[in-house]
Amino acid sequence: MSSHSYEVALFGQFFSQDLSAILHRITLHSESAHQMHAKELVFEPYDAQYQRDSGTEPVLLRVRKELLEPDAKWVIYSYLKPESVRVHPEATVRPWATCQVVGNALNFASALGYVRRSQIYKRGYIFRRGPLVIQMFQQEQVDPKTQKPVSAHADALWEVEVRTAAPVRNSPETPLSRYVDAVLEVQLLMKGLIDLRRQDA
User: Where is the signal peptide (predicted)?
Assistant: First the structure.
């Protein structure tokens, strides 16, 4: 049996005019909801291009901080390639590791031999539903002069990520199928409003 921890996830997008209907339905079926404004940076190994050229997909680091919580720490996520669609046709299942960083996560990432590839802000809502967290957000770009977020255009697409709130192990007590079923329940709940699907990116 694999010693990896996994994330199980589904993804979707919708237009602003559907926001209130979708918020209403998700809120009805969630235990809690709050606003979210997060800064996220993606780092790749300094030799990422060399790795790609030699047929290896480099491991990216995602570094995230919640800006609405005054004491929030940086959290680093690392994902490996999703399991094949033959093994998990209905949801994205990928090995996942996460750790909190005390101090400057950017320095930490560069000390590991990583360079910054992109930076975005996400503004929206977070819902909790059992073992899942549902994020619904619009991406904000960064003003190159001030490095501050620029509000998303009113018509910008909203993105939805339904995922396990913490890495899960595939064990007899907690089989991955339980978490796949949990995200598929949300897919069914949102049917007709959002098309939630597996993605490999």
Answer: none
